[in-house]
Amino acid sequence: MIALAALAVVAVALSAAAVLASRSVTAEPAATTPSDTTQTAPQTSGEPADPSAPATTEPGTTEPVQETSTPAGGAGVVVVIGDSHSVGDPASTWVGTAAAELGWGEVVNLASPGRGYVATPRSCDFDPCAPFPGSVPAIVEAGPDVVVTFGGTADGDYGLAEPAEAYFAALREALPDAQLVAIAPVTTEDTAEYWLTMHAQTIGAAVEAVGGTMVDAGQPGIGDGDSLSAEAQAEIAAAVVAELS
């Protein structure tokens, strides 16, 4: 009996030990691993941003780059060739105002009283003393960036198609990179003759055919007498500046 009782006690003890071992195993937390779909925040170095470094923007939001350019009309050497409307102190003619407004550098004034596309000047301060087509060598010698031709009034009622075309074609051939500008003829008489309008159209077609620019200031000098008034000169200057700016 004693032996059976001892065996029973041993069996109970073993059963209790087994239960305790089972409880200790299930009590331990299971190890976990991050899910494959878990998103992590981007890492930073923790260093302060460099204030001198350029700011970055998202694609498509880049600020436009500001561009700078030289004002239109700015030039180193400008040759002005014309009749008496362009002769005199630059400060009292359209030449001085246009030069200041457009940033012209050196201005070489080859204007002479009575010069035209076919009309020979009454007097000259330089050679050759010739109409515009015959003055091309003198213009080219100055090495201009811009050539402004202002005339046609002295030519009277005479067709200017051929001489104007020959003149501007010769200028373009000799000065392929220069800016060529023509100003329509202006009168100081009491009325503007019909042929002045014809001259303006002919001259404009000739200069534009070689990539030049035509400036038509209208007839601001009507009734001024022998020379253009200060007001008329100012209107011509304004037209030149507006067209070339």
Automatic annotation (TrEMBL):
InterPro entries: SGNH_hydro_sf (IPR036514). Keywords: Signal. Residues 32-46 have a biased composition (Polar residues). Residues 52-64 have a biased composition (Low complexity). The keyword Signal applies. The keyword Magnesium does not apply. Residues 1-21 form the signal peptide. Residues 24-72 are annotated as: Disordered. This is SGNH/GDSL hydrolase family protein. It comes from Tessaracoccus rhinocerotis. The lineage of its organism: Bacteria, Bacillati, Actinomycetota, Actinomycetes, Propionibacteriales.
